[in-house]
Amino acid sequence: MSHRPALFPVLLAGATLLLVVHGLGRFVYTPLLPWLVEDGLLSVQQGASIASWNYLGYLIGALLALRWHRVAQIRRSLPWALALHLLSALLQTQAQSPDALAALRLANGIANGLVFVQAPSLILEWLARHQRASSSGLVYLGVCVGLIVSSLLVSLSDGLLQGAERWWPAALLSLPLAWWGWRQLAKLDLPNETPAGDPATAPSGRLFDRASTPLFLSYAGAGMGYILPMTFLPMIARLQVEPGDFLIDGSWLVVALSTLPSPWLWNRLGVRLGDDIALRLSYLMQLLGVLAVLLLPGASGILLCAVLVGGTFLGTVLLTQRLARTLHPHQGPRLSAALIALYGLTQLAAPWLTSLWMGVGGSLHSAFWLGAGALLWGLLWMLAVPRRR
């Protein structure tokens, strides 16, 4: 290459698209749900069921991304996925029944799964082409900002909107951001076929081999381990801390703020230590966060969990994606899609297993042992992943 391309516009475009589909699509539902229930649009049980439909859509989207993993396919399907997000977001403002909202959240989850896999994969291929792959993790800053933006949109519009109208701020903000982000990525100078790496050897088309299988098994533990605190930590706070405590309403804000430095921090640690060593550290930190809820009393355990899990789970995602491409550079987008699909499956399974556990008399608090066990599983399998720099 005769020049080093400007990274900032590309990374900003990718971060913007993740902000749109994850912050304004998926995670805006978390602060919206109590208000939708209070407005009489949903019951708590219906709200939980609708969340599951969105998780299922995310899994379907990741599986579709596994099918459409080539650069040419990503170029075709990514704008359609963004269009699906925008359409479902706008229609949510008119959804007056739980069944209609469930169908729209399913569609929104499909769009989320596709974009969350394809946009970072496309950018990682472009960065690798320009020998700048070490910057890939910064794309996930969009998720961090999206958590805070979604919370602010819901808070600032309270008192102005009611019921299905509460979806309008996220829907309207999505329109210009999605358009601008795709316009930038559409300009990337990438060949439609991903290079095969070392031309002296015929690359394997297998997803699973001695190098990648331990990484898949480890990532399964990550999906199951992080989703429990990310789903139930505010409820644990409500059950365990004194009435009026900041953490009853503020535990989600602590999680969101803790995510802000995490992509930069884990990106740097991966460069300095190696992605595999940094990944082991990220699993250990998340494990300590979940154990804090289980072993420390009340507010101290909840606060430590919010900081450690919030500040770590995105690091696990970005490091795993980059390490996977290092193991199999000829099929980076395909590996990324397969990993996200597995992640989506295990994060869908964790709340279901929790409900089964509570159905036989277990407590929500004790269900966090499932998350701790899953993260320990992930840490142990990471020890079997071969070193690659």
TrEMBL record:
Keywords: Membrane, Transmembrane, Transmembrane helix. InterPro entries: MFS_4, MFS_trans_sf. GO terms for cellular component: plasma membrane. The keyword Membrane applies. The keyword Transmembrane applies. Gene3D superfamilies: MFS general substrate transporter like domains (1.20.1250.20). The chain crosses the membrane at residues 47-66, 107-128, 137-154, 216-240, 301-319, 340-360, 366-385. This is MFS transporter.
